[in-house]
Amino acid sequence: MHTPQTLLAHVRALTPNLAPAEQRVAAAVVSDPAGVAAKTISELAQACRTSGTTVIRFCRAMGFPGYPELRLALAAAAQAGRETGWEDIGSDIGPHDTLDEVIKKITHADARAVEETGAQLDIETLGTVVEAVVRARRIDIYGIGASAFVALDLQQKLHRIERIVYAWPDPHSAVTSAALLKRGDVAIGISHTGTTADTVGSLAEARANEATTVAITNYPGSAIARVADYVLTTAARETTFRSGAMASRIAALTVVDCLFVGVAQRNYKQTLRALERTYAAVKARR
Question: Given strand 212-217, what is the order of strands in its sheet?
Answer without folding.
Answer: 165-168, 139-142, 186-190, 212-217, 230-233
